[in-house]
Design brief:
The complex is a heterodimer of chains A (270) and B (314). With 270 residues, chain A is mainly α. Chain A is 76% helix and 1% strand. Chain A has one domain. A two-stranded antiparallel ribbon of chain A has the order 1-2. In chain B, strands 5-6-7-3-8-9 form a six-stranded mixed β-sheet, sandwiched between helices. In chain B, strands 2-1-4 form a three-stranded antiparallel β-sheet, with helices on one face. In chain B, helix 7 runs parallel beside helix 8. The chains are: A mainly alpha (270), B alpha/beta (314). Chains A and B meet through helix 1, helix 5 and helix 12 of A and helix 2, helix 3, strand 5 and helix 4 of B.
């Protein structure tokens, strides 16, 4: 594939660009500390008031590991496509992106890829190592790490395409902030990033089970922690297939919507 | 005959604009309004551009210049008419078309903000799949035209506007595109940077036979670069010919300056088709003593101003 040269070039540039702002990593790590302190005390009191060691099959310990790793994944996946795209549309900058000799969605994905690589090494890996050391091996180490990486990449693809599906809405509403808040809240709540899915009431959990958000946080974490049968071949493959299926659906839907949205730019001039 | 690289046939562009009403009441009404008015930004413009030309695409603010450029590059779709660029229909095959064109839009930059210029160049080399040898040759050509060493390793965000514009122009030519669109490239630049950029554009056009479509409000750009000028006003093409013909467009104008015995200069713009310069001098001499005479050709700027102010001329 001749395209590889274009793609690696974009990734490399993204890495170099992200590394220019290395102070940002420090700020992220510091912000995480504050957030995790909050999470710690919140759940401590939840478990204290529950009066038992395990709530919904998870100990306090399990919950903390789950949420800390979810935060690490959040830092890894975080992207500002919605902001960037709406700013680009409002300023007219989007023209420069549309005039690249690559399809816009493809170009955008690979432009962001470098910053993911950087955040993986600078925020995810350190957080993961700290969890490993502090818990002295609560995270199983083995083939699950490989499965986790695959699952994480799929999570990235699902998340990207979800962003790309939502972002063009700004073209119609002309309000970025509102759309972004709605999207963030839905994703963080229904994906298991802020509350482990195990804590959801049975009825809601059954619905959330089929939604794409789970593919972003809950599945990679479940795979990593070898929970819910993800350590069996059948369990693992059904989870990966679930991610693949949603990735495919979102890619197709996002493409259709984008093609419609881009016509709004090319017909009305943005 | 030279190759035609860009053909526009009866191209029009219509924008639909929501009618806005005044005041708070009006704004609330607008929420539910489906009341659109249409604005014709470009009306039946036809244009044929041959390989290697530098065309000055001129017109007053809001005349439809940028709209035309956007249609040529494929980011806007025309309402009617046909456009082909390098044999492609731009809006249908935007990505493919982009491989063979270069674009500089005045205040925008396609460079990577945080990276040194050389990194942007390498990235563009890879995105446009430029062979290494062609890339090196192009850098060599750049070096022969401008002094790029001081800016090559400077991050774009630390550059002055002039350096950034220069860099953006170099970036647009990097993949040796057949056509380059320059939309007000010298806007906001000082005289010496303008001169440098004009030389660069001219040099690249000569070396690579690149067709250049240039929109500008600076007649210095036009005088330095363009042999052919296209003027549009209110979306319609009102002039398309050599710059030399332009001087005769409104008649052959010259400015006659006469210094009289009291030391004052008297200026008069003369249309040589109607009045004879010698006649004016003789008439003046009957009343005053002339101590000095100057005769100036009318500048492109003055002619263009006359065209803009006069609208469609005969």
């Amino acid at each position: 594939m001749k395209d590889i040269r274009k793609l690696t070039a974009l990734t490399k540039a993204g890495i170099t660009e992200s590394l220019q702002f290395r102070l940002g990593t420090v700020v992220t790590l510091f912000g995480n500390l504050i957030y995790l302190a909050l999470v710690y005390f919140l759940w401590k009191s939840i478990y204290a008031s529950a009066g038992s060691d395990t709530v919904n099959g998870m100990t306090f310990y399990d919950t903390m590991i789950y949420l800390i790793l979810a935060t690490a994944i959040f830092n890894f996946l975080e992207m500002f496509i919605l902001w960037d795209m709406s700013r680009a549309i409002q300023s007219g900058e989007i023209i420069m992106h549309l005039l690249k000799p690559m399809r816009y969605r493809w170009y955008t994905f690979w432009s962001y890829s470098g910053s993911h690589v950087v955040s993986f090494f600078l925020t995810f890996i350190p957080t993961f190592l700290v969890v490993m050391i502090v818990t002295k091996g609560a995270v199983p180490v083995g083939w699950n790490l490989l499965a986790f990486i695959c699952s994480l990449i799929l999570a990235l693809i699902v998340n990207f395409n979800l962003e790309m599906l939502v972002a063009p809405i700004c073209l119609y509403t002309e309000s970025t902030w509102g759309v972004n808040i709605v999207k963030e809240t839905i994703v963080l709540l229904l994906s298991g990033a802020s509350i482990p899915l195990a804590f959801f009431p049975e009825g809601i959990r059954r619905i959330v089970q089929y939604m794409p958000f789970r593919a972003i946080y809950d599945i990679p974490l479940t795979v990593l922690l070898k929970k819910n049968g993800s350590d069996t071949a059948g369990g693992l493959s059904s989870m990966i297939l679930f991610q693949l299926a949603w990735a495919a659906v979102l890619i197709i839907a996002g493409n259709l919507f984008w093609n419609h949205a881009v016509r709004r730019i090319t017909v009305n001039g943005g | 005959m030279a190759k035609e690289v860009l053909v526009m046939k009866d191209v029009s562009k219509e924008f639909k604009v929501l009618k806005r009403h005044e005041g708070l009441k009006g704004s609330i009404r607008d929420l539910f309004s489906r009341d659109y008015t249409s604005v014709m930004a470009v009306k039946n413009v036809s244009l044929t551009v041959e390989e290697g030309e530098i065309i000055g695409y001129l017109g007053p603010n809001g005349a439809g210049k940028s709209t035309t450029i956007k249609m040529m590059t494929g980011v806007l779709e025309q309402t009617s008419g046909e456009i082909t660029v390098n044999g492609l229909v731009p809006y249908k095959e935007r990505t493919k078309n982009s491989e063979k064109i270069g674009v500089v839009f005045g205040q925008r930059s396609q460079l990577w903000w945080a990276l040194p210029l050389i990194e942007s160049f390498k990235l563009l080399r890879d995105i446009y799949m430029v062979p290494e040898k062609d890339y090196q040759d192009m850098l060599e050509l750049y070096r022969s035209l401008v002094d790029i060493e001081p800016i090559l390793h400077k991050p774009v965000r630390q550059m002055s506007l002039g350096q950034r514009t220069l860099s953006d122009i170099l970036a647009a030519f990097l993949h040796d595109p057949g056509i380059v669109f320059l939309d007000e490239p010298t806007i906001g630049l000082d005289v010496s940077m303008k001169a440098k950029i004009r030389e660069l554009i001219k040099g690249l056009n000569e070396a690579k036979k690149t067709t250049v479509i240039l929109t500008t409000h600076d007649m210095g750009d036009v005088d330095a670069l363009c042999r052919r000028i296209v003027i549009i006003d209110e979306g319609q093409k009102i002039y398309d010919n050599d710059i030399d013909h332009l001087k005769n467009y409104f008649g052959s104008y010259r400015t006659l300056k006469l210094r009289l015995e009291d030391g004052s200069w008297h200026e008069q713009v003369i249309d040589e088709n109607k009045t004879d310069v010698m006649h004016v001098i003789q008439e003046t001499q009957k009343k005053h003593r002339i101590t000095d005479i100057q005769l100036e050709e009318i500048s492109t700027e003055e002619i263009i101003r006359k065209i803009y102010e006069g609208g469609k001329a005969s």
